[in-house]
Amino acid sequence: xxxxxxxxxxxxxxxxxxxxxxxxxxxxxxxxxxxxxxxxxxxxxxxxxxxxxxxxxxxxxxxxxxxxxxxxxxxxxxxxxxxxxxxxxxxxxxxxxxxxxxxxxxxxxxxxxxxxxxxxxxxxxxxxxxxxxxxxxxxxxxxxxxxxxxxxxxxxxxxxxxxxxxxxxxxxxxxxxxxxxxxxxxxxxxxxxxxxxxxxxxxxxxxxxxxxxxxxxxxxxxxxxxxxxxxxxxxxxxxxxxxxxxxxxxxx
Length: 252
Fold this sequence. Notes:
The protein has a two-stranded antiparallel ribbon with strand order 1-2. It has helices at about 10-30, 40-70, 75-105, 115-140, 185-190, 225-240; strands spanning about 200, 205-210. By secondary structure, the chain is mainly alpha-helical. It contains six helices and two strands. β1 (about 200) and β2 form a beta hairpin. It has a domain at about 10-140. The termini are far apart.
């Protein structure tokens, strides 16, 4: 047999609410349009909804009584359960009497009498109170609830991409994209971006200097000197370029 947790009462109670409220609305519409061609059809539909609604209400009361005696609860929820049960029984009796009046008026072509309309209006109001008390049993007192959902683990489409309250913080480690230097490497590169200006003399007696551009940390191409070797050449350059004199004999 199909198992419904915690019981069948939440399943059948919706049919009671829908059928009895629909019957009340159809009786009112049939009375309002009793002289119109649709008045008789509205009244017939109202009688069928009322009869089926009363039959389903019997099952609703039976499953509700079972839930009242079996569901886990405490003192506060027991008090609300008792109030809900009393309203449910009283509401069912009102609609049962209304069903009896509707049976007595079955020969009427369209519409309902004042007494029947009054019972249906009062029963609809009582049914609303009963439903509200039943909702309190679940949403305020947690009757029949086996687990509570965890909040903050999803994002609603209309929330602008922001999630609800999170129970914990998330730390994210982002790997650098291709071609992008890591923060430490970037700071190191920024510190060595400008090479020093090295003054030196050439053999022709002119002294000038070269300003080198950014030094990039790249692997040397095939046949190129490594950075250490390049640095060695740079250090050796001033010595090699030290000023010196040449004696030339020119024959004219």
